[in-house]
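Box 3.1 A note on notation
Throughout this textbook, protein chains are presented in two layers. The first layer is the amino acid sequence; the second is a token string describing backbone geometry. Keep the layers aligned when reading.
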Amino acid sequence: MKLHKKLISLTGLALMLSCTNLYAAGESARDIITNAYKYIGSMDSYAFRANVTERVLEKSNKRIVSIKVDRPGKFRVEDKDSLIVVNSYLNNGVFTMFDRKHKQYAQVKTGKGIDGTLDLLFEEYGIIEPLAQLIYSEMYKRVKFKSIKYFGTKIVGGVECDYIAFKNGKVEIHVWVATGDRPLIQAYSIIDLSTEDTSRVDSTVKWDINPHISDSDFIFAAPKGTSKVSVK
């Protein structure tokens, strides 16, 4: 099954944050990002849509990622651009990935909740769900900082945000977190400086904290003419 390899480049943020060596001190910034992940993890159900732009040299690729989460054991992800549409479902211990273009799907029984499933998919199959860091319920426990820099407040999409930046080797990570009682991540950028062909991923997120969610959102029914393949 031809899986969308760009999922890994986009959602590596969740893994990078867990081993980041950051470039300036700031306890308040440390609290801001920790509280943001705690808040996301505390929500029982929510949905969001992210506009993602990947840039390498003169080329760019725009994607839309739509996600629904219903804790403790359900999520749905749709990742699409002009060429592909990949849907992923977790429904109480059964994970399904469906490639609409190639009309193929794969399933695996994880027997786990959301966090355990995301870990299993990566460790056993090398699959990283897009924007996984915004799906984990305990992402705040995975973030370990040595240093962090705070750049003050900025307006992102009409929302006042705290602006924080990290650095991991030759990768820079910039995060904008809404101020106030709902510290949701509104945008982030990942800049890879490891080669001359500098690449950058910019994402803006629109949250729906009171979405209409039903059990049927997480049920996969294979369309006619679709074939089942190994998740590997």
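The domain at 6-228 is CATH 2.50.20.10 (outer membrane lipoprotein receptor (LolB), chain A). The radius of gyration is 17 Å.
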